[in-house]
Every structure is written in C-alpha cells, then in structure tokens.
Design goal:
Layout: H1 12-31, H2 35-50, E1 63-66, E2 71-78, E3 81-86, E4 93-96, E5 100-101
Amino acid sequence: MEQQKRFSQMTEYELRNEIARLNEKAKKAEQLGMSSEFAVYERRVLLAKAYLLSPEDYKPGQTYKITDGSSFQVSYLNGYFAWGYRDNQTTLEGVPISLLEKEGEE
C-alpha cells in the first residue's frame, strides 16, 4: 500500500493534481448516489485548497463571508484553519481558510 503525503508536504503542483483527483472521485460518488463518500471528498478538496492559500491574508478580528452565505468572525488562526464564531454564535468552531471569502471575492 502506498503511503500518501500530507497536504502540508505537497508542492502546489501536487496539491492541484490531488484536488483534480478528489473532484473526479467526488463526481463518481455523486453519480453512484454515495452521498457520504461524496461529502468526504468535498471536504478533502476544501482542505487541500486551504494549503494553496496564505494564512497571513486572514486577520483575527475580521469578519468574512463563508461560502454557505453565513458570516464568520475570526478569533485566531492555527495553521490553515481559522477559529471563530459563525453568525454571532457563542460556540467556537474551526473552518479551513478556503471557506472564507475575502472582500471583493464572490
């Protein structure tokens, strides 16, 4: 069995190839009606995309729009995850920075 690299160990080229591979697997899982497997692949794509971004571009105290339409106020960053509060909730949660839309993005 081949040992797979972590996203943090991959080059940009390898990450882009992995994202394409995962998207293809997600598409097949969706076509076969395997919704749980599809969700896993979608989540892995989001994580891989986070490693293509720069965490320094995201600032604690700022509020960002999340791709699902809600807002997310960043309290702190830990690697490629932003920790904070969604829609002024009181529960701290972590999301990959690839879910956050910076000002002017759609």
